[in-house]
Amino acid sequence: xxxxxxxPKGGWVLFxxxxxxxxxxxxNRMSLGLTVFLLSLALAAPWLAPFxxxxxxxxxxxxxxxxxxxxxxxxxxxxxLSRVLIGAQTSLSIGIITVVxxxxxxxxxxxxxxxxxxMVDEVIMRIVEVFMSIPGIxxxxxxxxxxxxxxxxxxxxLSIRRITQFSRxxxxxxxxxxxQDYVTACHAIGMSNMRIVFGHVLPNCIGPIIVLxxxxxxxxxxxxxxxxxLGMGIQEPTPxxxxxxxxxxxxxxxxxxxxxxxxxxxxxxxIAFNLLGDGLRDHLDPRGGSVV
Amino acid sequence: MLTTVLVRRLLFSIPTILGVATLAFILGHLSPGDxxxxxxxxxxxxxxxxxxxxxxxxxEELGLNKPVVVQxxxxxxxxxxxxxxxxxxxxxxxxxxxxxxxxxTMLLLIMTMSSATVIGIALGIISAVNQGKTGDYIARMxxxxxxxxxxxxxxxxxxxxxxxxxxxxxxxxxxxEHGFIAMVLPTAxxxxxxxxxxxxxxxxxxxxxxxxxxxxxxxxxxxxxxxxFMVHALRNAINxxxxxxxxxxxxxxxxxxxxxxxxxxxxxxxxxxxxIYEKDILVIQGAVLVIGVAFALSxxxxxxxxxxxxxxxxx
Lengths: 292, 315
Known about the structure:
The structure holds two protein chains of two kinds. Chain A is mainly alpha-helical. Chain A is built from twelve helices and no strands. In chain B, helix 1 (about 1-30) runs antiparallel to helix 14. The longest helix of chain B is centred in the middle third of the chain and has 36 residues, at about 95-130.
């Protein structure tokens, strides 16, 4: 704060201003554009896909990319492009649901932990540390193998680590604003603790949380793909990029397009979310370092 | 003094390790199916064919009819002594399997970490020193691509490139079969992501230090550019980078799981995945436990390293 007389701005106003500044950079506009493009591809996938994703055509098995099949076909003669598009829908929806789920629970736990402090905080943070000690993919693999690879369990397995990550960031953010004057003021006018945390403290911590959500979205999609690649994620016949890359792995030497195209889309998605996360971090969370 | 801090830090990691063990135990109890049935080598269909008395006897033998808390304490007691039970599937000692797999994974992680550190720091310095110039632009491009490339996909691309198109390296296999060369592609596959992360951290940390007065003083003293960057700036910029490197363990282990599987390296990751395919819960439990404990120990190591690099923290 260079000018002391400047009025301190509240959460949303500050957020909107930062976002405008964010949009004034070309790279940020590009990454946002790419993200929106991928999201709309996923949304419109059923209409965009030139063939039904599960249409088997043995006579067309493993055909190279051509005008009819822009990305070629797999061993069962299914159109790769259609499967990549529907796969985008699978990956993005699992990613978004997981992150939203992790965000709601994680932010709640973290905010509570940071605001209440003391013993509660100590215990919660110890538990969080335990969960952070096991790599995301190992945790997810172990849980899915025990619970079974159905989408709800996959989402649950993926979100446990996100819950701990969100709770850490939310806790830190709450701790940093908790001692500010306006919180004391809220107390003085007799506001309930719940209302202070969720109505006043959290909206002021929105920046770091949004940044984390963006970065984690890319991360979850990657973990889901890895799970599916290892056969413990989305199951056939629903297409998922990870499963497609795994299937293509068998035909790698003579039909590399099976693995290359879904992988390229996964890579593009990761680029989009990473760049977006970087840009958002610069503008919304200036203090924040790397979280993942 | 250092010893006191070290001992305190060591004590601090005990709750985490205990927590990881508890988690591994819960994992075993979440798994559907009756461990007694599994221990007898039968699947769920075999359930009806077992005599009730026989089932009771096996339960008794495995201690499955005791209260969960008792089972937990007994399991923990054994696990601390390095006894993770006998696999129901392969009927070999889980501890033997885990400790046989550990060296491969450790070698892989050490190789990955050292190459990622060297490449990452170099790339970050190149980037920072040439800020805004072509060198910076290229280095940052490499870093963002590195961060965004899915490890398992990159592994496949590497196989395609260097085992089929240019057959320089073996596709799969352990060190025993091919020697050291078997580790090159897996290392490259896992190292890309951490190298890129380290490069990004190094760049921003270095840029911050370069704006300090002491850098200007060093330059004004007439020191060479090389000396200013590599001695004065680097020493001050390296701490946040060490933190990032330390936090890479979980990331690396995650990458190692898929990469070991792809290259059929007989490490912890392959063991875990085989355990999952075979529904061998004790193997899964053992692998998760060892990975979690290794993480806690690596955090400890990072703290010690940090204390050695930055004497200010020792107090």
